[in-house]
Amino acid sequence: MTFFPVFLSIVFVVRNQSGRIETILSDAATNISSLVSDYELIIVDNASNDDSVSVLKSLTGENGQPNLQVYALTKEVDTDTASWVGLENALGDFVAVIDPLVDDIGFLPEMLDKAVCGADVVFANNQKKPAQSLAYRVGYSVFNWLYKGSNGINLTKEAPQFRVLSKRVVNFILQHPQPAIAYRHLPATGGFARANLNYSATPRVSYTKRLRGCIDRGIRLLVSTTRAPMRLVTWLSLFGAFSNLVYSFYVVVIGLLKTDVAPGWISLSLQQSGMFFLISLVLLVLAEYILNMVYLQNEGPLYHVGQEFTSSRITRREKLNIEEVVLKPVPTTPSAYPKRAA
Asked: Which residues pair with 38 in a beta bridge?
């Protein structure tokens, strides 16, 4: 097995896994201890309602496992937020985020090889997915289609949860005003060198995700990371204003060319079209204003220096007119001085 002289942090997000958490951590420590020079296992307990916290406390005792950090949340949050709890407290040169029930920790050597060779972001996509309901799969496909159309990236294939990030990427995400939300997509869209790998491993457990929670999470991700929803409101408002303007011209033309128009139709139509035209303009201005406010609120860092190099030869140092003066040591022994005449 290849050895990597790096400090690796591994983030596990668990919930109600008191029966298998000790086995998961023991297997992880066995695989990682001979892989890297130093490591830490960060466990984020996502508000378990069993005795997971008690088990984790015993594992961090004197007779427990080494290199463990445990963060027990008081209420359940989405997976991205829970993962970020571990990421922002990681100390390693590289941080791996792993779902212990789905992802294969045995694939880490291939991911670390890419990371050490220069990839700041390494994604690993498991070809074997847990069995999910038809409604969940349809909803997930629709979400990925919408997100790819609005943000240009397929989160399932191009930015899966199983990932290895360098410390530079973590520091970059920390500069974002909402890092827990930006963590999901920012490593794939931040301009860092990345690698996407595929592997095939049977998940340990096939658990069913709740469609309602995934819908809430997907809507929040769409609204907070892309302008597409508000931009759609802007275009609809613009279309409404233009349509009402065209309809007003149509009413005027009918009034001029037709003689058998019903009494009051022209004035009523112009009144309605004018009112909806003004409402559409108001919605257009409000949508653009809200879009600008959201953009300023969610705006990330303007730039990030990924690497910095300095030339070993600086010409200005060669142009400086400086003459080095070598000072000779002053003798201190009595014999070094001439004797005074009596």
From this structure: 7
Q: Are 59 and 24 in contact (CB under 8 A)?
A: no
Of 5, 192, 174, 195, the residue nearest 90 (C-alpha): 174
Rounded CA gap, 270 and 167, in Å? 62
Q: How far is CA 222 from CA 33, 137, 289, in A?
A: 39, 18, 18
What's the pTM? 0.68
Q: Tens-of-pLDDT digits for all 342 residues of the chain?
A: 688 999 999 999 998 888 899 999 999 989 898 899 999 999 999 888 889 888 988 888 888 888 888 898 888 888 888 899 999 889 999 999 998 888 899 999 999 999 999 999 999 998 887 777 777 777 778 877 877 777 777 777 888 889 999 999 999 888 887 888 888 888 888 788 999 999 988 887 655 566 565 666 666 666 666 666 777 788 888 898 899 999 999 988 988 888 888 888 888 988 898 899 899 888 888 877 777 776 666 555 544 344 443 434 444 555 555 555 555 665 655 555 555 554
